[in-house]
Amino acid sequence: MIGTSLESFDFYVFAYFSAYFIGPLFFDPLGQFGGTLAAFATIGVAFVVRPLGAAIFGHMGDRLGRRATLLWTIGIMGVATGLIGLLPTYAQAGWLGAVLLVLLRVAQGLSLGGEWGGSILLATEHSSPVKRAFYAAVPQLGSPVGSILSAVVFIVMTLALPAEELAAWGWRIPFLLAIPLLAVSLYLRLTIDETPVFKAVVREQRRDRVPFATMFRAQPTALVIAFGAALLGIGSYSLMNTYTINYGVTTLGFTFQELLVATTIGGLLQLVTIPLFGWWATRVGSARVVAYGALGTLLITFPMYWLLQFASFPVLVGTMIVGGILPTMSWAALGGLMNDLFADHYRYSALSVAYAVAAAVSGFIPLLTTLLGESTGYVWWHPGVVLALLSAITLVSARAAARMRHAPISEDGREVQPAAV
Q1: Mean pLDDT in residue range 39-58
Q2: Around 58, how many Cα atoms within 13 Å sit in the side-chain half-sphere?
Q3: Are residues 25 and 138 in the same domain?
Q4: Which residues fall within 8 angstroms of residue 209, CB to CB, at 6 or more apart?
Q5: Engineered SS bond to 170: which of 161, 193, 267, 281, CB 3.0-4.6 Å?
Q6: Cα gap 342→418, rounded to integer Å
Q7: At what angle do helices 334-341 and 286-308 cross, to 10 degrees?
Q8: What's the number of domains the chain is made of?
Q9: H and E: helices and strands count for the chain
């Protein structure tokens, strides 16, 4: 969980940065609207390459082990994030900085493509079947912790530095922090043992030569269901914490600091709700908790965005909290749902690919929502359309997952291949 939190900090600090700084710093000739689109597109670039990273690191995870693969993912992420803090801006080197920024975002995206599946498996494959849903929820804390850390850094910096100094050099500090954080992450992951489940796969000589191909042949329908189940948990973050920050500043009239405080409060609440929802999943099943979260989000989507039009800061905080709790249900139980769907000898590849494809789609949500807002004159309901669609897809997928047969587990932890679906 700690390692995932630090890697999430590396990745999410760019989301906060892009919503406010990346346009004028790297894409200044494109103007305000063009710079905003380019900034959100750089977020999308990292998400687009995540499926490739999932295929690469998923293969490594199923062939070489969960622990070794996670050392690679955190190393690439930390180095790429630190180098972003050293890039020249457009004023200093023209388009060179933008080109290098895109390349480093590609490296970040490849790394994150293999991170999530490995962190879930490292937790669940050390747990008993009874506690597996709860253990699967714990690494999900990495997302709000990383979000909180990155938001706190920016809040402190915007209070401590004048806007001119923040734009001139202060924005580099959060990225350079990745270097010491990388050292901490590597140390933590070097102390972790390989999972008993992967050791059993190796001992019993059940490793596939190409796990990526095996999962498509054995469980193609399960991959589609896993993709749909992941959309709300990932996509709602892109919508609320990236698009809504920019929309709140440019259209609703809130300050950047107010929106960061609101999202940070929502993230702090997730530190409590994610473990609670994980515990609940051990009682009623992970798929049901994902479905309940999606249904609740669908019901409150349009009232929430309507209320934002008249919101004071306290109402903004309340809206962000309510709008965050329900998608968090789907997020907290997602790892348990996916873990239950796939066999152990290609599970790293399956979890990584399904999650990464959902992330690739979600990465363009800020861009697509901006285009929808521009075409509708930023009418109040335009973000609600996007969130409602994500909720509906996840609801249908979670209901389908609840009806699927899962792999039975023997007393020694060995898992039986599920029937092809």
Answers
A1: 86
A2: 29
A3: yes
A4: none
A5: 161
A6: 7
A7: 140
A8: 2
A9: 23, 0
Q: Is 412 a domain residue? A: no
Are both 324 and 373 inside the same structural domain? Answer: yes
For the segment 176-180, the average pLDDT, to the nearest whole number, is 87
The residue range of the domain holding 90 is 1-193
Residues paired with residue 415 on neighbouring β-strands, in sequence order:
409
Pairwise CA distance, residues 412 & 199, whole Å: 12
**179 and 118 share a domain?**
yes
Where does the pLDDT of residue 339 fall: very low under 50, low under 70, confident under 90, or very high at 90 and above?
Answer: very high
What sign for the dihedral angle of Cα 143, 338, 239, 312?
negative
Q: Is residue 421 part of a domain?
A: no
Most confident of 78-87, 233-242, 385-394: 385-394
d(CA 69, CA 53): 11
Check which CATH number belongs to the domain holding 345 and give it: 1.20.1250.20
Does residue 215 share a domain with residue 138? Answer: no
**Token pair for residue 323?**
């709008």
Distance, in Å, from the CA atom of 208 to the CA atom of 205, rounded to the nearest integer, reads 9
Do 149 and 223 lie in one domain? The reply is: no
Read off the pLDDT of residues 262-274 as tens digits, 9 standing for 90 and up: 777 877 888 899 9
CA distance 302 to 352: 32
**5 domain-assigned:** yes
Tokens of 102: 């895109």
Helix (H, G, I), strand (E, B) or coil at 240: helix
167 and 279 inside one domain: no
Q: CA 276, CA 270: separation in Å to the nearest integer?
A: 9
Q: Name the average pLDDT for the chain.
A: 85
Q: Name which residue leads in pLDDT, 313 or 109.
A: 109
- The domain boundary, picked from 193, 222, 244, lies at 193
Whole-angstrom distance, CA of residue 12 vs CA of residue 47: 12
Query: How far from the centroid of its chain's Cα atoms is residue 45's Cα?
Result: 14
Around Cβ 193, how many Cβ atoms within 10 Å? 10
| Residue range 192-216, pLDDT digits in tens | 889 999 999 999 999 999 998 999 9
Are 5 and 90 in the same domain?
yes
Rounded CA separation 357/223 (Å): 10
Whether residues 108 and 251 fall in one domain: no
Tokens of 185: 């992450």
% of residues, the chain, pLDDT over 90: 37
Q: What are phi and psi of 398, to 5 degrees?
A: -65, -40
Residue 126 in any domain: the answer is yes
